[in-house]
Design brief:
Keywords: Membrane, Signal, Transmembrane, Transmembrane helix. By secondary structure, the chain is an alpha/beta fold. 16% of the residues lie in helices and 42% in strands.
Length: 441
């Protein structure tokens, strides 16, 4: 009720004619696309797609100093100039929806009107939905911020330290976004309760994407299509729970996750083309947690990986225990593959390879049982030799059988005096006796 009275008084004072005869400077409330309601919220809803809104800290069409919220929907372009919200002590919400082009200049959303050392002071909530963000400049978002949520948007450029020196931060959620260009150290040196990247597409995650970030509860990377994840992409400390799930990753470099955990780590249902040596080596456990609660578990469950070696699964054995409940090697089974992974699967790891004859994944120990060994390893050689021997025997039998048949049917040729040739199966010799002729008749 007091707020309503104060707002009415302010409106009345604002409407009084100036004592010096000058026309009062208009605020954003007087912009054609915007208005201010009785709760001192600045609401800009662009009915035409060509409308642009520029938010500035002073001068004509500035954001009014008593604004409690800034809501902008459906505009062609929105730009926050430097220090736009720095002195808006009543501000609690910044919401941008359906914007074609957003630029947040350096310190454009830097909000810290209160002491940084007090946890009791309020913060602001920043949400961006279904928009195209052309650039979030260096040091653009700073100060006391409770939540940063960017959803269903395209982010063209994230500059170094774009999100830095934040206090009181509870949640950072990046949901179903497409990132084009990300500079190093985009998120720099702050503490947050939950950091979640869910869905969307990222071409390259640079080194130190998260740099010196403390996550006190949940760190989650879920269902993201990542072409290349660099070494030291995540420099993170203190998460109680780490979930890396359902991601499609082209290349995961060694030490991509440099994370000091205070709880278990789950690496589940990911599909990775190239898992480099030492890709999981950066996971470790906080020394105090290790001394009081012991080693934490690193679970690898139902991941499909094309190119890797046993060295890709090297982990910090001094602070973690490794459990492999399912890992599909996206390569054809062979006894050589089995020998390469023997040391790991003999310690209880469930590792599968692709069995061409049956068209599905099969556990390596099962493959070894049915196909490998001194005799089984040469199984096909014995089959080929046996087939060749059988063919030779059949050929020899047929040869002699045909030869014998031809000899039975062989016929005798007789040449008679008249020059004719006869072929007979049998003949008789008739002996005739010749008598001498006499002259006596």
């Amino acid at each position: 009720m007091r707020w309503m009275i104060c707002w009415q008084v302010l409106v009345a004072l604002h409407s009084l004619p100036p004592t010096n005869g000058q026309t009062p400077s208009p605020t954003l409330c007087n912009d054609d696309a915007c208005r201010c309601d009785s709760f001192t919220r600045v609401i800009c809803k662009c009915s035409q797609s060509s409308v642009e809104v520029t938010l500035r800290p002073n001068g004509a069409f500035r954001v009014p100093s008593m604004a409690t919220a800034i809501t902008i929907d459906g505009c062609a372009k929105v730009q926050f100039l430097p220090e736009t919200v720095g002195n808006l002590t009543q501000l609690r919400t910044v919401q941008l929806k359906n914007i074609d082009y957003i630029v947040i200049s350096e310190r454009g959303l830097a909000w810290s009107p209160f002491s940084r050392h007090s946890d009791m002071e309020p913060g602001i909530r920043i949400t961006i939905e279904n928009s195209t963000v052309d650039e979030i400049s260096s040091h653009a978002i700073q100060g006391r911020v409770n939540d940063i949520i960017i959803s269903d948007s395209r982010i063209n450029n994230l500059r170094p330290f774009a999100f830095s020196s934040l206090t009181g931060l509870k949640n950072v959620e990046l949901n179903n976004n497409e990132f084009k260009n990300i500079d190093i150290q985009t998120f720099k040196k702050f503490s947050v309760s939950n950091f979640v990247v869910r869905g969307g597409k990222i071409d390259t995650m640079p080194s130190r994407f998260l740099s010196d970030v403390e996550i006190t509860n949940l760190f989650r990377l879920d269902s993201v299509n990542i072409n290349y994840l660099s070494s030291l992409t995540f420099l993170v400390s203190s998460p109680k729970r780490i979930l890396v799930e359902n991601n499609l990753i082209g290349t995961l470099e060694g030490d991509g996750f440099h994370v000091i955990s205070t709880g278990p780590i789950t690496f589940r249902n990911n599909s990775i083309s190239n898992l480099r040596k030492g890709a999981l080596l950066g996971f470790t456990v906080d020394a105090e947690v290790l001394s009081t609660m012991g080693k934490q578990e690193l679970l690898i469950d139902n991941n499909t990986i094309t190119n890797l070696s046993p060295a890709s699964l090297i982990y910090n054995m001094s602070s973690l225990t490794l459990r492999i409940d399912g890992m599909n090697l996206n390569t054809t089974c062979s006894c050589e593959i089995a020998d390469e992974w023997r040391e790991i699967y003999e310690h209880g790891a469930i590792i599968n390879c692709w069995y061409d004859l049956e068209g599905h994944f099969i556990s390596i120990p099962t493959y070894v049982t049915i196909r490998c060994g001194s005799f089984k390893n040469n199984y096909w050689i014995f089959i080929v030799i046996a087939v060749v021997v059988v063919v030779l025997i059949v050929a020899i039998v047929l040869y002699f059988a045909l030869r014998h048949e031809n000899e039975k049917k062989k016929k005798l040729q007789i040449v008679l005096p008249d020059g004719k040739t006869y072929r007979e199966t049998e003949f008789h010799i008739v002996v005739e006796r010749a008598e001498l002729l006499t002259t006596e008749l």
